[in-house]
């Protein structure tokens, strides 16, 4: 699928240089970066879901616990 993306001039120059250095294309660099970001987002979502049933601490409770343990 084709689309149009607008880049800052400096970012575009950096992409052109990187593409030349890797014998790749700007399109492939951008697609790879987007894939990495989507996978990272998925990992974050999975991590949040795995912690869904954990006890939530208010900030004040956490500070109080740290004080009682001598950490603050």
Keywords:
72 residues; mainly alpha; elongated
**SSE order, as H and E?**
HHH
What is the 3D shape?
Answer: elongated
What does the radius of gyration come to?
22 Å
Low-pLDDT segments, ≥5 res: none
Q: Number of helical runs?
A: 3
User: What is the terminal separation in angstroms?
Assistant: 55 Å
- Percent range for helical residues? 55-70%
* Biggest beta sheet attributes: none
Number of strands: 0
Strand residue content? under 5%
What structural class results from the helix and strand content?
mainly alpha
Written description of the protein model:
The protein has a domain at 9-53. The chain contains 3 helices and no strands. The model has no long low-confidence stretch (mean pLDDT 94). The longest helix is centred in the middle third of the chain and has 25 residues, at 26-50. Helix content is 67%, strand content 0%. It is mainly α.
